[in-house]
Structures are given as structure tokens and as C-alpha cells.
Records
---
Amino acid sequence: MITSPSASARTGPCPGWLWLNSSIGKKTVVAVTGIALVAFVIGHLLGNFTIFLGPDAINAYGAKLQSLGPLLWVIRLALLGILVAHIYFTMKLWQENNAARPQKYLASNPVGTTVFARTMRLSGLIVLAFVIFHLAHFTVRVVDTSYATMHTMLDGHEVHDVYKMVVTGFSSGPVVFIYIIGLFLLTFHLSHGLSSLFQTFGITNRRIRQNYETAGRVLAWALYVGYISIPVSIYFFGLGKGVLQ
Amino acid sequence: MNFHLKVWRQKDTNAPGTLEEYEAENIPAGASFLEMLDIVNAGLTRKNIEPIQFDSDCREGICGTCSLTINGIPHGKGRGTTCQLYMRKFQDGETITIEPFRADAFPVQRDLVTNRSAFDRVIQAGGYISERTGSAPDANSVPISKVIADQAMDAAACIGCGACAAACPNGSAMLFVSAKVTHLGLLPQGKPEKNRRVLSMVRQMDEEGFGNCSNYYACEAVCPAGVPAAFIGRMNREFTAASVKEMLGMSV
């Protein structure tokens, strides 16, 4: 008989802990936190699109977010916690996976896998570096400290001039290059991640796998096109040039 | 046909191993890969060199005993086991690298022979049904839909050779375990124990030191029985569902 003590007689670690420490439990945590982060990435992009509605739209959007006050910090800390869990469990899995295959093949021949899947950890870590740069650039504003002093009037209130900051930021070639590369790696990461989570949750069978793999890749590239449309519009097509004079 | 072989030689589990080079000469194109090694070994024995040790049993592709990673691919290129791989699939004069199945849970015993008992212990943890169900029931007395029967049969095709874990860059045995969980969990005889089976087998799998699935699907690409990786998704779902039941204090 497959041994399984009855619920009342169970001793040892609690079932929740066992699940969290199992290989599937850890993978599920990475998938769930990944979904939360992708949801943020989608929401962030929709917010960014207000730049195409003109200075007032994005400045009002920025002012609205700032006006959330404590709630904004709750969201920020929650995102940080999710990110930390995503990375922590990935690193734990990575460590175990390395231990499970200490000796590599001398004649290596990767079959069945994609370059996206094989580079998940690398692309993820580069994306992390990019996110840190992005926060330093537009949130903490230490890359160019003049951003912090950009203000404008909106409906009689003085607000931070997000529009001018973004246009100034993306008028620099090296910065645009960093964003294009950083976002490309995010796309790389999501190309595998978005389809992988269906497998991890078990929403799969032989028939639908091709569909969600394609859908995941399409969404990843759609996000890429959406995100880089902003630096590309500013740097190459002169969006918002007027505010710099 | 002639081949230039690079073969992993290792005295025992703890000894360091190296690739040794051998020539395989006058090999018939119709020889299987294992027969090619037999011919090479006969030559080595004549020269008083210790023959290359490798696993084999039925040599008709059904037992799952033969292994070998050939040019980096478990069981070599193409679908099927090493014993069903014929030398005509290779180019004359080709250099062929032969390594053992690599996974921490499959220690090398000697040369190309690995100890795959970890799979046996995973099976012992729950890869069976506990109740004797009598002799084969009358056909159609237990109705099973064609879809379920086909799926269970596809999972039951697993011969437990270990190529999935050997191909996986993470040394993960998820394809093997998911095949067993799916095969038994889908049919009426195995269903009553499906929750405790998946919990028990996955925990044993982790304990044996197999890695975690990164959804590379290398396992599926090399599986000689064509077991699809969708079964891994199925097992993920069942394991989490069974864990939730356990967390809620339900009997599983």
C-alpha cells in the first residue's frame, strides 16, 4: 500500500512546507510571482502610453500615482517582495539543478530546447540589472539629477514634469540603447516564461501546447514593440522635441 | 564501415574517468550500435585490453536497459533505444563520442554502466496499485473511454530507461515520474490512490537528487517511447491539488 498517514496521525513538517520545498512547489512559486510581475509590466506599459496623449496626460498620470501616497508604497513593497521571491526560488532551483547534473556532457548536443529556455537565468539577471538602472534613471533620478527639478503647472498645481523628463532621458543615444537591449532581454525572458507557466500549472495537453507557446511569444514581442515605441518615437521621430527648447 | 570512437572509460564510481579513443573497423552497416560495440570489444579482448562495459538486455527496444549518450544525445539521434540504432545511420569514418547517461542520481558504476536504481526506488514509493484486482476483467465490464485508455497507454509506454533524466540539463526525472503517475492515475484500478501516489513519488524523486523541470522539453525529444511532456504538466497539477488536499487536512 502506498503509505500516507491519515490526517490526524500525521507528524513531521506541515504539508504546506513540504509543498513549498518540493520541486513542483518551488516552480509554482516562480510561475505565480512571474504572472504578478507580467501583470505589472502590462499595467506599466498601459500607463506609459499616456505619453502619446501629450504632456498633460502623462503628467496627470504621474501626479495621480504620486497622490496615492502610502498605497503607492504598499504596491512598491509588494512588487519588491514578489521580485525577491521570484529570484530567490529561481536561484534555489538553479542550485539544485546544478547539483543534479554535476558532470556535463563532453559532446554537448542540446535537443528539444530553445535558446530562450536555456538562457532564462542569464536573461533574468540582465533584466534585473536593467530594472535597477531604470529605477535609478526615472524613479530615484540619480542618473541625471536635473530630472528631479523639472516641474510644470497642471490645473493650477505644480507637478513633476514627467513628460519633459522622459523626453530628455530618451534624447540620449546611450540611454535609448540600454532600454532597447534591456527590454529585448525581457522579451527573451518572457518568450519562455509566458508559455512555461502553463506547463507548470498543468493547463496543458499535447493539443494546446503549440497554441500557448505561440501566444506567449506573441505577447512577449507585443510588449517589446509597445515599450520601445516610446524611446524610438522620441529619439528617432522627434516626439516632444518642443519641450526641450 | 569504419568509425573513430571516443569512449568514456571509468574504473569505478569514485575513480575519475576519461575519453579513450578506439577504432571500429569493418562494421557491417546492418549492425546495431550495441553490436558495433560487441565487435570492438572482441577486438579489444584479443589485444588483452579490458572491454568497454555497457548495459544491454533484450536488444529489441522494449526493456529499457541499454543506455549510452551518443554524440551528446541519449540513445543517439532518432527515436528509439540504443539497441535499435543501426550503424547505417552514421557516416562512414565518422567520429562518435560515447558517454554514460549523466545525472547525479545515476552514478556511473563502470565505463558506460550507470546505476539507475533511483528509478526503482521512485517506483517503490508509489508506482503500483495496492489492491489485487483479480484476473483480467471481462472486456468492457469496466467502461473506460477511448480517450482515457489511449492516454493511459501512451504513458504506460515508458520503459524506464532514464534517457529523460540523462537528456535534461537539470538531471530531472519528471517525464519518467509523470508517465507513471499518469498511467496509473487515469485508470480505475489506480485512481483511488492517485493523490498519495503523486505525493509519494514526487517526494521520492526529489530525495533521489533529480533536478527540477525548467520546461526545456529535451526529455520528450529523446524519449524512445514518445512519452509527451504534457504529462509533466498533468503531474504538476495533480501534485499541487493533492498537496492542497493534504494542507486542508483531508485524507489523501
---
Amino acid sequence: MTTIAVIPSTHSITTNPFSTRFTTPGRLPPLDHRGEEVDPAKLLHRLDRHGSRAAIRGPHGSGKSTLLVALADQLRVRDRLGGIVRLGGGFRRDLLAVARGLAACDRGRVLCVDSWERLDMVAAAVACTVAWISGRGLLVTSHGIGVLPTLVSCSTSPRLLARIMERLPDRFGLVGEIDVEQAFDEANGNIREALFLLYDRFERARRPGVGS
Amino acid sequence: MPPFEPNIHVDFDRPDRRYMPGESIVVRYEVDGLGERPLLAVERSLLWYTEGKGEEDIGVHFFDRRSSKTDAAKALEAGSFMAVLPASPLSYEGVIVKVRWCIRIRIFFSGRDAVPERLGGSRDFVSEHVFEVGTIPPAAMNIGAQTA
């Protein structure tokens, strides 16, 4: 992960620390529900014990995609990454994307698929079978149960959001700890939604007297 | 051994960092806080990016890489470059999305975890220095009704 220091121009305009620039998967390290850093190497070891086919499970905004990106980076370093596919283009396109991903993935490598739950049960089972028969690994994120064993279950807590705050750029005192706790509650524990709420609060606070 | 806390200082030819499309921009940079660790490479770029709630977009207008294989160490630690700014996009301070121009200096070190852990613990360090192109006024705030 690259360290980025943003130096704003002298007369403006404070960078919004909650923008996706700083929060999107790959920009933050994977953290568990207590806010402790997850060791991707340990999870890859566990993935190997599952035959290189497993699922990262958890509700919306619980850090599944962030963890998948971190594990994909580790697989890349070990020259075992077979590709990354992000689903969400509709069932047929998603099915095609997985088929192409598996075709392009060399034997012994791992294909990473985000939002696996967008495939139906039959398509998911067929894809898993193809991966198993052809000796390809499959690491996916999913909300629900499925045929793949669970590698890790993601969940959230106010402490996790607080630890994420420590890793974001300066809030310039415009968003306080109470705002962070309220955002977590309002978003029902969905960290992604909470960060969007905090983005809006930061925008309101930096433009005093307008629309608040 | 001197402490290793990389810092990149950038000087613009205009102290207010305000430019218009088609104008030239001249930038000087200097890297310090390296202790005794040598740089492997420096990437200098001039780019725009979006910042907001959606996916980030980015456009690189100028890019140049200097490596220790081709340049002396002192030439990596300090330098300057010039570019002519394009007609678009202009800097924009929106609510949901912003367009920012910046000078990005990226320095690479040898070995793993070269940067101290509290600064990210990575093998490279990026410093972005924002400037403005054009004179579009900031957008008005109107997201209160959506989120209150």
C-alpha cells in the first residue's frame, strides 16, 4: 500500500477525508471488527487449506471487498493471482465475466470475484465445479451462504469505524467523534454508508451558513 | 543514522498556485528526510483527479520517471520541470464531486517497509501538491435535505 500525503493549495479547500479516494478498497488496510489489522498471509494459508476455493462473507459495507483486494495483492506478490472480476453488470454479463475470468486464469492460480452473490445458485455451483475440475482457485466475496466454504466472516463495530478514522486524512475538527458514532448508528453498521454520511457532514461543516 | 522521515517540498512559480488553461507551470521539488537511504527512482507527474463519493477518475497530463540507473543521486533528490496546462478540465469544488489538479512526486526506496509504519510502512512515498486551473466558483451546498 502506497503512502499518500496530500498538500492542499494554500488558499482553499480542504480535502474531504471521507471521499472514496481514501476509502475505496485497496486504499485502506483490511481491519477486523475490533479494528485490528488482518494478516493477509495467514488468511492465504487458510485459503490453501480450503483447496484455494473459499468465500469472504459478511453484510454490506463490512469490508469484504477491502479484504479481497488485500488478498489479491498478496496473491499477486506470490505470482498466484489469476485475475480479478467485479460483478454487477447484470446476470448474463456477470456470468460471462466469470466464464472469461476462469478461462483466462491459469491452472493453480486463484481467480478473485467480488459480489459473487449476483450469480444465482446454479450458475455459482457450475462455476465452482469448473474451477475445481480445472484446478483453478476461486476466492469470492458474498453476502449469503453458498457451496464455497467460508474463509472469513466480516462484521463491523463502532471501534472498527473509529480505527478507520485514524487512518484517514485530517478532519480539521469539522467532524467529531460523536458524528462518527452517529454515522455508524444511522448506517446500521454499514461502514461504507457511514463514510458517505460523514462525507456529507464534512461538506456541510466546511461551508458554514449554506444549506445546513 | 539520521531519522528516515521522507518529506517532499514543492515550489510553484506562482505562490498562489492559480493558473489558467494554456499557461505554463514551472515546479521545483526537493526531497529531504531520507537519512542515509538512497532513492531508487522518482516519478514526477502533473495530473487531475476527481474526489467525491463515486469512483475516482484520473488523467495524467505530464509524466516523467528518473531512476538511479540513469541519473545521479542528487539529480533524483531535487529537480524541476515545466508543462503547459491543457484547456480542460478546470478545477472544480463541487459537493458530490471535485476536480483537482496536482503535482505528484512519487519516490521509491530499496527494501521492504522502507517508510516508517506510522507513515504507512510502504516501499514508496507519494506527495501530492494541489493547485488550481481556471476560476470556476465553488458549488452551493444543497445536500442537507438528502441526509438530514
